[in-house]
Amino acid sequence: EDGIVEAHRALEPHRRVRSGNYTFMHLTEPEMKNYIKYELTTIEDVFKAYKEIEKADNPILLAQSLQKIGQHFTLNQQQRSDVLSSYKFKALVRKFREHAQVLPHDEFCNTLWSIAKIRRQNRTDSPEFYKHFVDEAIEASLGRMQYLSHWNLAYLSDAFSRMRFATPELLDQIAVQTLTLKDDFNAFTAGRMLKFFTIFPSRSQQIVSQALLQRAIQVVDDFEIDSINDTLGALIRLHSSQREQGSGRNSNLPALKNQVGDLSVELKAKLLPKIE
Q1: Residue 88: CB partners within 8 Å, gap ≥ 6?
Q2: Four-point Cα dihedral 214, 218, 223, 226, nearest 10
Q3: Which of 6, 8, 9, 213 is at a distance of 20 to 30 A from 142, taking alpha carbons?
C-alpha cells in the first residue's frame, strides 16, 4: 500500500516543476495519466481539461478521460442523460471514434465499456450520434477480436450487454474467441461472458455456455458477491431458454442443465454466508 501511494506521489507535477504555474502540457505522459486519474475529481474538471488533453495529441489520454467519467463517478439517470447530451462529452466520444483503430486493446475495451456504462439502453439522447458510435465500435471490435485477452473480451462483451445491441457477426466472433480462451477465464470474466451469451442468444449459445459453465465451476471458489449476483441472473435466463427449447431437440441440453444446476448450487452456497 505504501508503495502504491509513493508511486502516485512521485508523479505529482510539483515534485519536478519548481513553479506552481505549470500547465498540462508541462507534464510527462505518466504525469498526465496520473493527473487524469487522481486530480480530476468532477466531470466538469474532465470537461475543463479536455482542450489541454486534446493538445497533447495522445489517443490514450483521451480514452482515459472517458474512462474517468464512466468508471469513477456515480450518476443517476438524469445525470447520465445530461452527460450523453453534452457537446463536451460527445466531443470526447467523437475523438474516441477517430482513434479507436489505433488504441491498444485494453484501452479500447475499457473505454467502450465506460461509455456503455453511461449510455446503457438509452435510445432517446442524441440517438443518431450514438447509433454511429455503436456501428463504428462494432467494426473496430471485429478487427481486433482474435487478439483480445479474456479480460479485454469480458469488458468488450459487457459493453454490448449494457447497450443491448450486437450483430450476428459480432456474436459469432465473440463466440469463437470465447472458446479459444475458455481455459483462461477467471470467476469475474467467466461470469461476464455467461451474462453476454444469455442476453444475446445465438446459434453458438449452447456450446459456448457449456464451456463457460465448466470453467466457472472450476473457479467457483474465486467468485465475489457482485459476480455471484450477475452470474445467477445469467443462469436464470439460461434455464428459461432451455425450458423453451425442450430437452428432446438437442443432445447437449441435458448436460447443460446439469451444469447450470451444479453452478447454481455452488454459487448460492457462497452467497448465503455473505448476506447473513
Answers
A1: 47, 50
A2: -10
A3: 213
Q: pLDDT (tens digit, 0 to 9) for every residue of the chain, 276 residues total? A: 555 545 555 555 555 544 445 566 777 888 888 888 888 889 999 998 888 888 888 899 999 999 999 988 888 889 899 999 999 999 999 999 999 999 999 999 999 999 999 998 777 888 999 999 999 999 999 999 999 999 999 999 999 999 999 999 999 999 999 999 999 999 999 999 999 998 987 778 888 988 998 898 888 888 887 788 788 788 887 777 766 655 445 555 566 677 777 777 777 777 666 544
In this structure, the chain runs to a length of 276
Alpha-carbon distance of 262 to 276, in angstroms, equals: 22
The DSSP 8-state label assigned to residue 36 in this structure reads I
Q: Which of 71, 164, 62 is nearest to 117 (CA)?
A: 71
Cα 220 to its chain centre, rounded Å, is: 21
Distance CA(170)–CA(176), nearest Å, equals: 10
CA-based angle 255:161:163, to the nearest 5? 160
